[in-house]
Amino acid sequence: MKQIAFNDNWLCNGKAVTLPHDAQISEKRGKDVSNGGHGYFPGGLYTYEKTFTAPTEWEGKTILVEFEGVYKNATVSLNGKELCFHPYGYTGFFVELKGLNYGGSNTLTVVADNSKLPNSRWYSGSGIYRPVWLHICEKGGLRPESVKISTVSIDPAVIKIESPVSVKADVDGIVGKGMSFELTIPNAKLWSDEEPNLYTAKITAGEGDCVEIPFGIRKIEWSNKGLFINGKKTLLRGGCVHHDSGILGAATYAESEERRVRILKENGFNAIRSAHNPCSKAMLEACDRYGMYMMDETFDMWYNRKNPYDYGCDFETCWESDVTAMVERDYNHPSVILYSIGNEVGEPAEAKGLDYGRKMVELCHRLDASRPVTCGANLMIMGKTAKGNALYKDGEQPGGEQKPQKENGNASLMFNIIASFVGSGMNKSGNSKKIDEVTTPFLDSLDIAGYNYASGRYPLEEKAHPNRVVFGSETFPQDIWKNWQMVKKYPYLVGDFMWTSWDYLGEAGIGAWSYTGGMPFNRPYPWILAGAGVIDILGIPDGSCKYTATVWGLEQNPVIAVRPVNHPGVRVSKSIWRGTNAILSWSWANCEGNKAEVEVYSDQTQVELLLNGKTVGRQKVKECKALFKIKYAPGTLTAVAYDASGREVGRSELCSASGPFGIAVRPEKDAVKPGEIVYVPVNIEGANGLVESNADRKLTVTVEGGELLAFGSANPCTEEQYHTGSFTSYYGRALAVVRAGESGTVTVRVSGGNMNGTAEITVK
After folding, report:
1. Exposed end of the chain (fewer CB within 10 Å): N or C?
2. Could you read off the pLDDT of 422-451 as tens digits, one per residue?
3. Which are the contacts of 221, defined by CB distance < 8 A and separation ≥ 6?
4. Residue 440 is inside which H or E element, if any?
């Protein structure tokens, strides 16, 4: 088998594009075209075309095109003849190119219909937003993702290889043959989050088909004693992640996914929940390399729609093929340790939904017996469904016909309203015996039960359900200290996934702390970001992120974070999906004398805070945190941590930017390959190289020797758009994403506010 990237020379609605491509991100936003869930982006109908020549040597072979993701309702045609219709926007699919004109020209057409809104609770993107591949296979030979590699045992290390056709497999010179056989790997290095060792199996079928499959040797076990990877008890330090790529929109590049996984790992996470749909291949591959556990999720809804035109319209006819597509794709990735069959669905509280849930669990087990199956279960939602007060409910006509929701209906908005008023009290909403009775049949059908905002149940499960294994599949970031104490205490509680580890487009303002007032959900146009991530869309960690790492015991020294001091006298509107808006900065120009709230995170007994060498306070640490209220003055802010005996055990500092401000252009790589994506942070900095948080400018970027894919900041409320090349920095930071040309040098120039900055990247 030969695999060829099939991403160049496409047209989208007549305009030349290179895949992956998000057709929605450049659409004109407006308060009347969509809703806050979509980030106020309109939808549309997008027609992609690619004309190519099919060599005569392809004749007699099987020619497949693999689409990793098209949002949504994709119709694929070849030379005017329809070949395939694929509704779901998040599962990959293969199309056999039947009717090729061998030796001549062919036109492949893909129509993505994202015209009916709302169809998602977050920004979805539109079009062919993930890569496309051409597979040339021998007739009746090896097909992509048809070879399965599993771990039989780890001591000794034995793997099993299964294929629908007879193959020859070579792993480090150890060879096996057949359709199903085992190989013993001597002195094997196992795969885990701490040691992500990978092997490559070279698989050959017949005379020509050959594929190389990376895999890891690792064993998953779970019980009320805990989760064990290769026999070692493992606690999941998790974060939920949406699929979008920030300022790139939904377009999924391998470099972007690798960067995100790397930054998450650097900040202490060892697990990702792909919320609420299957993640990209590139993210799985990055998780394999970096040692990041993956909980891959199927759907955000089942047959009851959360929005009028969402996947609930297709669930009953497509769920089986889409679950199968995810499991078959994930099978050989060692990073995938959990399959999730849904998120906050109320259906399992009724007989029909419970039956669907059990069918999905059984299907996952049949396709892959090695991994546990879970679900992000919101016990409050299931309890309301059981009482006939379902938040998400279309109802049925005789014969099963669905009653449509109102055109502008948005059931998820109602849930967010309830959650905002209930607040952390939602954690106890599943504690009653009645809700326990309602949820038990479904939760007991899962291998591991995922609880969304139900931490109140954690201590109860030891007696109520002594054999149940649970984890927090979705939790408030500010609850991490309380939750993590329980994770460490209760063996059956195997981890925590906060909402969210990385900020995302859509669900406008749901997690933002705002100085302009308003309710903390569905904020009005021009809000665009959720504002819920402890890492922003540029990849910058905030105070919550460092607080979490401190709670996890991963910070050697105290960490200082400061709530913005440039809004004197203005009351901030808070959100329950965010514990603080503090950032890692003590550089606030023209804010002398303003009130400053300084948070210091430490797992020690006491911390002392000094400003320019003078002590401003010393406090006991409570739940790994101390809060100081002082007046801002530029200079150096120092935190010192003391143990129970009063001995200094660590210190850290934040300093102010000084000297004339300028634009610093800082590519994350000095040299790249042709066509590679490179991230280029753009900062407003003082002469001492420190970022200034209160001197933002409208910046304009130009690129020579490459292509500017996006430019923007983490501002959650703006009318500026990421494809224009002009954007205002936010707290001193912006980001450009550039695709390198074929050779030479990529030059990135940034100007704004009588300042200029330049950087060069070598292409080789």
Report:
1. C
2. 667 889 988 999 999 999 999 999 999 999
3. 227, 228, 231
4. helix 433-443
